[in-house]
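FYI - complex with zinc ion, inputs then prediction.
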Amino acid sequence: MKTKAVLLATIALTMTACTTSRRDLASYEPGSDAACFDRASEPYTMVVDAHFHPKPFGGPAVPIDEVQGYLDRTGVRFVVYFGIGQVLEVNETCTYYLDCPGITALPSIKNDFANALEYDNFRDTRESMPANTLLSMTFMDLANPDDIVDTIALYDREYPGMFRWAGELNVIKQALLGNSHEPATIESIDGWSGFMEVLKERDIPVTLHSDLGNNDNPTEFVPLMQHVLKSYPDNKIVWAHMGLSKELTNMDPAQHIAIMREALDMAPNLMLDISWRVLYDTYFVNPRYAEMYTEFLNEYSDRILTGTDFVASRNKTFQVYKEEIDVVSRIHQGLSDEAFRNIALGQGFFDFVGLDYAAPQVCSG
Ligand SMILES: [Zn+2]
């Protein structure tokens, strides 16, 4: 039986948990005396947004202090800043490629440099950062890889040591085929060896967007990613959106999970990215499917990365980001405590990247 003192202490602890529901970055430092994580009173939303685009495909972007404010207000403490692998042609008024078929969208260094310059300036004006930010190189054209190593050398001269991720790079992205996107081929994948070696030496992960297929042929492009995984087994590779997309909305989840499982078992350095609300809207929203995916995520919880795939074009507001964070994180609610810590609280991300941070333990009972 609980004494009055114990009851009061319990209430006090619960109140602390409520008031600290948005934990700060310092609480993830190893050795911090952060309280255990109370799933009943603290948010189920992601702490790591490992798939975030601070610049749009074209047109005006959300200013950086506002973008970093979005992270701060939603409790996101770790973010991977992707460029846009395909910037729309200069002088076009489009902000989203699907609205402008025929307008060329090609890989470019523009976005990466804009992110690095802006982030560097922002950091200089702040005493502490709301989120640990990792910059990513997104210029690589996977269908034409010959000059990638030289361009990395250019990045080294301009921003030494600043880029610690690569991607999101497009192996095959069907949504962009109307904008002159050239998919990678088995031959061009064989030509990646130079830059994949550089990434491996530097321990830089690469996020690849590689559609599994489409509603006519759900597994049409699976051999491309299989070839990547077989060819570069020692590279840290992240498969964006688990290969799903708006073009593939009718896949049998059992078949999808089987393909993911086979890839994870074959490639020990592979991680799956469960970002993008399309995954929720087309699969996780179905309770029977959610149950299947939850079971799969529980089993492979140290191989999963969270993210929104938010694109910060100026026509968006904080409400949009907040909603994406919530929708994409709903699948966390059914996870086991161990999987919740790995996925929602970021422990799997810290281990994968080798970051010196630790997720809080989940309170028992
Ligand atoms: Zn993306």
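The chain has one domain: 48-353. The chain has 13 helices and eleven strands.
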